Please model this.
Amino acid sequence: MLGTSKKMRHIAVLLLRRHIQQNFGTNFCSSRKLVFWKTYLCFSPTSRMVQTCALRYNSRSSYDADEEDDEKKEEMRKEAIQSALSTQTYFNSKHRNKETFEVMLEVFEKANPTKRGLVEFIFAARKHLVEYGVQYDLDIYKKLIKLLPEGKYVAQNVWQAEFSHYPKQQDCIVRLLDDMEKLGLCADKQMIDLLIKRFGRHSDPVRKCSRQIYWVPKFRNANPWPVPFPPITDPFLIAKLAIERICTPDPQSVVSVWQSKSVPEALDETYIVSGQSPTQQELLAKLPKNESIFVEGPLNLWFGKARINYFMLRADTPRRPTQLQDPDDVSNLKNPFLFESSDIVEVPSVHEQEDGTILAVCATGTSSRDSILSWIRLLEIHGNPALSEIPVTFSLKSPKGDVTPVDKDGPVTGDESEKLGDK
Amino acid sequence: MKAAFSNFNLRKQLLEKTLYFSNQNLQRKRNLDIAANFFHTTRSHCKKYNVNRSGGTFFETSKRGGYEVEDDLSFWEHAKRGARMLPNETKKLVSEVQYYFSADIPREGCPQVNLLDKYFEFGSPESLENWSVACDQDYDGGFSTAEVSLMPSGTGLFSGNICTRVPKTGEIENSGYANLRFIPPMKSFAREKYYFFAGYSHMVVRVRGDGRTYMINLHPHALVDLEWFNLFSYTLHTRGGPYWQETRIPFSKFFLHHKGRVQDDQFPADTTEVKNISITLLDQNDGPFSLEIDYLGCIRDPSHTEVFAYESYRVPKWTPRN
Model:
């Protein structure tokens, strides 16, 4: 009986050693392996370490779950624990959110009192931050840093500080901070305190942090057309903010939100975000009735990390005769005291550009041809009666799809175009 | 013709005036640098992942940081090419000397107040030769594409696609960039020429972007290997949409970075010797981009008195600068 249990234990140890070697690339010395396993195997020697850990978690959490939400959360936790332990591959749970991510960190802490493979674990965690949707969460970064032991990596003298004490650990945390920086996150006082406790004041991660605190807010607030942070993913809100941003050259512009349902013949039901200023309405009213105006699009616009398609109603600008003047020509000087009458030319508005007059811009939920048609009809109702007489030419490319937030992968398929094609 | 003194006309006149001047400049440039592009048109290929790349040495071995351009020419071919260059370069030298003695005082040092001087612009199909495009795909460092083309209205279009997928070579951690660089004209015998922007206070850019954030770089005149990879940059935020934007960036705002890492020890860019300018796209967003460029110029605004926008206090002794 004793012999078989010993054999079982031996096999389990071998298997887990191989797993760890494969997954974390660490080859630990034989003298320490017993210390490593003692902590788990002393509890119930016959069962595998995986089971014991899971059971311990179960027993602890059984009386906490009273409400349904808590039960769900507990189930998620259990599942995450199982995934972390049974395969020895962390970050492979079914539910991917902040809670399960934290469970991974807890399990690692419980299962590795010696902190073996910590650098590798943090590198693995870095890869899965986006998957678990915690990349904009400063707490998670702090928790990852808290895994490091306090005081162990602090340089004791000048030479250690100069020649990068525990370089792998320092480099690992610097990369983690670099990831934060790329997303626009900035370290705070608490994080610096954590790092000073772990690496000392004269270390790379602390220096990196202080640089971050100096530079990141400078660049984050430099944008004259600010973008919400952390990035929003609601397509409607993105479209609305983006159209507001396009309309900034004319402060009089009005951004209105319409539903395509309000047009009787509309095929698809979406929102239409339209931007037009009173100046543009006047320009439109003044246009000759026999020349056509154009709807152009879909055109690309980036709003932070999201990309949307927008459309533009454009008319050709009448060509002004351009005369190049020689500023050095002194043959025809003007006498300012004669009060010669001069031609009065109206200052063109911002909408009248060299390559066309912009009459309105819009973004729709589906970016389909039908929704653009409804937009033109709604424009006609809302203050542009001239549109009923002016011919409108649709110079549209094939619809690409609606607003694509960064979290969705791949472009949205053009279902709308197929529907229209059938009809 | 009776010129009107309305606001618009005045602005137009000013614009036309600068246009007139810049056209003159362009013509002069062309006369002076007929063979300027000769140096850029030789058959060449890029050595990828060279061992010369810095790291492990205390000095930089190459100005291009390992991404060398080598031509396949033999010694005799080189000699022949050099001989063929000689008459043209001599002519250029003669015209330079003639110009030096005949031209007026250079007006770069004392520009008119609030009058735009265009330095880098498009306009004709030939002007595309003055611009070079680079992206990570050129060096097998990624999958981005980029190109520069001319719009029917005469403006340049810098467009392409950014892909942040990292190639599985294990050498690179991040990828996804595109760069548009002006090819500065050279003096005779391939001597470098520098722009003198010290009289100006702002860099003016008229662009129509797509909402992305670009970067404008000033390439300094670097003498020693310590400063070969120095670059002064500032962000160029674009609005996006159909409207043009004219952005003024003060020269005092340009910050220093070395091989892409912002430095602790900051100092203002030396505008007396600017080698080149470039526009970079580095925001980690996958997808197409387009930036329509009308011109890049400089302007002097006497109300701007800032010398340097960033703190330049002394760092304590023995603090590693990097």
